[in-house]
Amino acid sequence: MKPDAATFIRPVEFPKSASRPVVTPLSPSVVYASDSPDMLDDQYNGKLSGFTYAREGHPNGQALSQILNRLEATENGIVTGSGMAAVSSAVMAILSTGDHIIAGDQLYGRSLRLMSEELPRLGISTTLANASSSDDIAQAIKPNTKMVLIEGISNPTLRVADFHGISSICKEAGIILAVDNTFTTPKVFQPLKHGADIVIHSVTKLLAGHSDVTLGYVVAKDSALNKRIYDFAVTTGLTASPFDCWLAERGLLTFDLRFEKAQKNAENLADALATHPKIARVLYPMRKDHPDHELAKKHFKGNGCNMVSFELTNKTRAAANLFTQCLEGIAFAPTLGDVGTTLSHPVSSSHRSMEALDRERNGISEGFFRVSVGLETPEDLILAFKKALDQM
Ligand SMILES: Cc1ncc(COP(=O)(O)O)c(C=O)c1O
Fold first, then answer.
1. pLDDT tens profile 43-78
2. 255-391: in CATH 3.90.1150.10
3. CA distances from 363 to 292, 311, 315 (A)
4. Does residue 9 surpass a pLDDT of 70?
């Protein structure tokens, strides 16, 4: 007598189809069944390909990684549960107690907190230095420096890193160069082609592009380093969920188009804001008055970015409150890379834990705003900003 199949809950047979789906199927399965312990051994030993347990890898993560690998001209990238999971994996998988890391002094706020709070607690020393100057990075090197971490374009002042200078210093000194390419995007710059050893992304931002996914990506050129980062991410549980990967894959299909439109809008908005009497300064790397314009021209092959920062002439919190209240149709929200334009105020969000003096040194006052430019009609976007400034 056979057991009644109805009492066994799994598996329900997946419908077979001679034709194949056009869209990547969503595969939320946490676990994958193998035929025998021998088969499982072969999978773990790499003799057979296939998935075992979702934290270690799943089809949607692999599908997403393939697209990101292509964009960054590499292979075997690791998709993580957030951009910070990617930053933490890259740094913490490789550095040990007694090591030293140099990081750009204008990194994303949480990356700075990793440097100032978490790494020292583990006996890893950190030095912050200006990544727009390779001399400043060179001067920060110590005998135990193992890694340099920079962002291509910094947040929120949009300073451009001196990639080539820094990468040749790192090569010469045998130091691992990690580049967070979130703001730059692989469309504008591919760090691994320019001497970086590790590239990192917050996929949450422009790559996924719709503010409905929190994901990251990290890859090391060297396969042993890459395996180290993968093992750390899997062990500490920093890997990503299938649904997020599935959504990000869909978002990535239009990345190129979104980027083109957003950067054009950003350029127009930057030029329009620069002429307004209530604006003290505008920062956009493709403008001639940007402090790193020459570096941007050299590295970005004529591209720009979707980010514009500016400072009001009135640098008080009261003026900042009034401006955000007057700005209609634009979300005041601390993210970037969405299809819609968003406005952020670093003093009250990304840089709130930074010492006031350090913020001032970096030119981030109460009147400082960062705009992540989206896909609106350019005239309407400019009008919305002008109207709010005029009303203040
Ligand atoms: C440059 C940069 N790196 C990393 C991160 C962290 O990404 P996530 O929010 O996906 O953890 C951010 C977030 O804003 C960022 O701007």
1. 999 999 999 999 999 999 999 999 999 999 999 999
2. yes
3. 15, 9, 11
4. yes
Q: Which two tokens stand for residue 102?
A: 């140099």
> Ligand 1 centre from 207 Cα, in Å?
12
Name the closest-CA residue to atom 2, ligand 1: 108
153, 201, 202, 144: which is closest to 176 by C-alpha? 144
Contacts of 124 (CB under 8 A, 6+ apart): 95, 96, 97, 98, 99, 100, 101
What architecture does CATH give domain 37-252?
A: 3-Layer(aba) Sandwich (3.40)
Distance 276 CA to ligand 1 centre (A): 31
Residue ranges of domains in the chain: 37-252, 255-391
Rounded CA separation 275/278 (Å)? 9
The pTM is what? 0.95
* Identity at 354, one-letter amino acid code: M
How many angstroms separate the CA atoms of 127 and 36, rounded?
51
Exposed / middle / buried, residue 113 (Cβ in 10 Å: 0-12, 13-18, 19+): middle
Q: Ligand 1, from 204, 238, 247, 344: best to mutate by most atoms within 8 Å of Cβ?
A: 204
Residue 184, helix vs strand vs coil: coil
Pocket of ligand 1 (CB under 6 A): 82-84, 87, 108, 151, 155, 180, 182-183, 202, 204, 214, 216
**137, 172 Cβ separation under 8 angstroms:** no
User: What is the bridge-based pairing of β-strands 307-312 and 279-283?
Assistant: antiparallel
Q: Please state the φ and ψ torsions of residue 53, each to the nearest 5 degrees.
A: -145, 135
Tokens representing residue 6 in the block: 């109805």
- From start to end of the chain, where are the E strands? 78-80, 100-104, 125-129, 145-151, 176-180, 198-202, 216-220, 279-283, 307-312, 331-332, 342-344, 368-372
**Res 11: pLDDT:** 67
Bridging pattern class, strands 100-104 and 145-151: parallel
Query: What's the mean per-residue pLDDT of the chain?
Result: 95
Q: pLDDT tens digits for 210-266?
A: 999 999 999 999 999 999 999 999 999 999 999 999 999 999 999 999 999 999 999
CA angle 293, 169, 127 (to 5 degrees): 85
